[in-house]
Each structure stands twice: as C-alpha cells, then as structure tokens.
Amino acid sequence: MSGSPTAEWPLWEVFVRPGRGLSHVHAGSLHAADAEMALGNARDLYTRRGEGVSIWVVASTDIHASSPDEKDSLFDPAADKPYRHPTFYTASEGVPNL
Amino acid sequence: MHGDHAPATSAGPAGPAEPSASGQSSFDRVIAGDGRIEPRDEMPDDYRKSLIRQISQHAHSEIIGMQPEGNWITRAPSLHRKAILMAKVQDEAGHGLYLYSAAETLGASREDMMQALLAGKARYSSIFNYPTPTWADIGAIGWLVDGAAICNQVPLCRASYGPYARAMIRICKEESFHQRQGFEILLTLSRGTPAQHELAQEAVNRWYAPSLMMFGPPDADSPNSAKSMAWKIKRFSNDELRQRFVDMLVPQAQALGLTLPDPDLRWNAERGHYDFGELDWSEFKAVLAGQGQCNVQRVEHRRRAHTEGAWVREAAMAHAAKKAARQQQSARGAA
Ligand SMILES: [Fe+2]
Ligand SMILES: [Fe+2]
C-alpha cells in the first residue's frame, strides 16, 4: 500500500508577519519537500484570510532552542534586578515628566 | 535540540522518558496554576499519550470529515455555493494539518499517524460515517455538525497543552463561517418551495441525534473524562456540553422554521435548560464499531487518495534533492 519507502517530507516552521510594522510570529509548522514548497504550503495553510503580508519558513532542524532544564540558570538572574525597572525609583514621585 | 519539534527519534524506541520527580512537581504546579505545558516541558507519560490519542483522532476527523461534503462540491446548486463549499472543505484540510503538527510536538510521527488511519486502526469521529444523500445535508452538517464541533472546541482553546490550544484558537476562528454557511443553506431551503422545505427538515431529522452524540457518551460511561478534566485538557463534561448545545439549537431551529426531531424536548424552567430525550447509544456504538453506512467507504477513499498521490510526494522529494545537489555543486564551483 505505501509502496516504496519514500522519505517523509521534512518539517518546516512557519513565521507570519501579520501586518506592516509588526514582527514575524510563529504560526505553526508543516511538511514540504523544499523551502519553495514550504512557502507555497504556508501561504495556503496559514494565510487563507489575509492573516499576513510576509512569510518566513525555516527548516525545523535549523532551529536551536534553549532547554527548559536551563530555565533557572538562564532567566532567574533577571528576577533579582528590580533596579532595571523604572518602578524601582520612587524619589522622583510627584515631580512632573519624570 | 530543535525548537518545539524534537526529532521523533530523540525519544528513543521506548518513547519519552518518565519525568523526574522535580519535573512531575513542576508539571503539577503549572496545571494547578492554570498555566500551559509546552512541548519540551517534562510531562507524565500518560498525559503525553492521552494527548497524542486525542489530537490525532481529532486530526483524522477533520481529514475524513472532508469526504461527506466533498461529495457535493461538483453538484452544488450554484457557483456561489460551490466556491463556499470548496473554501470550507479546504479549511477542514487545514484543521487536520494544524492538529497533526500539534501531535508531532509530542513526539508522534506524521507518517505513523497517517499509516494508522489508512490501516483502519485509528479512530475518527463517527459522525462522518453517515452519508449525505441531498444538498440539504450540507446545510445540516454546517449547522449541526460544525455547530457541535464549535461547542466542543471553544473550551479546548484553553486546554493545558499549548500547541493544542493554539491550534484550537485558529480552528475556532474558522469554524464560525462553517456553521453560518450551513445555517444559510437550510434557511434558504426552508423558505423555498414546500419540497425544498421538506428536504431541509428531513436533513435536520437525520443529523440531529448524531450531532448530539458527537459530545461522546454520557458522563457515567466516559471513564477517561475525569482524568482529562484533572489535566485541564477538557474543561466541561460531555453532558454539560451537550446540554449547552441543545439550549443553543432550540432558538436557532425556530429561526429556521424547522423542528428538532425529539418529542421530549421542552423547556424546564426549574433547571433553566431544555430537557431532551434519551439518545440511542446502541446505534452510536455500532457506528463506532464499524457498522456505519460509510465506514468502509471513508477509509477506502482515503487510502486510494494516499496511494494515488504517492508519485507526487516521491517526485517532489526527488526534485528537491536534485535542486539541492545542483546548488551545492555551483557553490563548490564558485569557491
Ligand atoms: Fe474543522
Ligand atoms: Fe468545520
């Protein structure tokens, strides 16, 4: 039934720019034989109702991601630096335009 | 590691490892806090398996669900209706694809899911094993079947698994057009000649009870529901959703000038809901067990489409490989 064992079409991640002035946002993924087909499929799959003005496709194997295991070491240091936020500074309260 | 789609092989033949104690407690914390589990978070094996089962069955339903309506594309009564029906059926293909890729983020392989469907081993919603003998059935499917699907799917937009919830948000946005176009088909027929009105009524008579059964067996006979609700995949029980659906249908049927085929249907002021009659679950079970009018035909058709498309998939891969080799060669030449 499945005939000769064809390699499965590789997986691509699709990023869509919803409008001019906005960044591309991850929309989902799809299978396609190559980048050109991935773009065509992404258009049919993720922008049937004017959801975007531009599409990026990236081979899923080319995405490198931080590991959830390193979450603490990567992101926790930011948690104890409240002085990076303007709300940390109260001396200027009541002073206009500051 | 590659983003949300870890290569399927990375989990090894034994499947993803059980989460460590700390992984389990962080999973519990996220669920308790009504947060979202994302693909590479640790999660209990049961949670992963049950999601893969639910999402792939859902994807198969969308794909098989194209057939009863696709049956009418060439015979739609006008070019206008034909264009609408094609757009709707195309959406259903899209829904299937969003869901397959959500299942892939859990380590399921597309190829395995497809093969399970083709081999007749995978389940899909039994509603699609009913035939569509008249054009009015297309209206009834849009109004009742897509309507029930929306009722089921809106709460899934808050499912605890991120990729599933995101796919559901996209799907729900598209579904409302499906239900409205079905309603419009029925309304047009209902206001047409007496024969057209009759056609609409008969279609509603055919699809009403099966659409109520789309919510699954009564809560008492639905052993997996409790677990799924504890994991916050499901937010409401089968019976709660069914009641909600019936309550919505009654005024809509009135607007259509059609009746719902249930003599026990009546407003219960005490409950603030409509009471409705017992459903024939033996029929549901028979259809699920493969005795529906179209079970064999649906899988057979999918298998044929898959086999006949094999050369296209192979040619595309061969073309891509050739193009890549040519690019590599010219890059080497330029160096
Ligand atoms: Fe759908
Ligand atoms: Fe739909």
UniProtKB/TrEMBL annotation, chain A:
GO terms for molecular function: phenylacetyl-CoA 1,2-epoxidase activity. Its EC number is 1.14.13.149. It comes from the Bacteria. It is an enzyme of class 1 (oxidoreductase). Keywords: Oxidoreductase. NCBIfam families: PA_CoA_Oxy2. This is 1,2-phenylacetyl-CoA epoxidase subunit B. The gene is paaB.
Automatic annotation (TrEMBL), chain B:
Its EC number is 1.14.13.149. GO terms for cellular component: cytosol. Residues 1-26 have a biased composition (Low complexity). GO terms for molecular function: phenylacetyl-CoA 1,2-epoxidase activity. Residues 1-27 are annotated as: Disordered. The keyword Zinc does not apply. Keywords: Oxidoreductase. It holds the Pfam family PaaA_PaaC. One of its GO terms (biological process) is phenylacetate catabolic process. It is an enzyme of class 1 (oxidoreductase). InterPro entries: Aromatic_CoA_ox/epox, Ferritin-like, Ferritin-like_SF, PaaA, PaaA_PaaC. NCBIfam families: PA_CoA_Oxy1 (TIGR02156). This is 1,2-phenylacetyl-CoA epoxidase subunit A. It comes from Nakamurella aerolata.
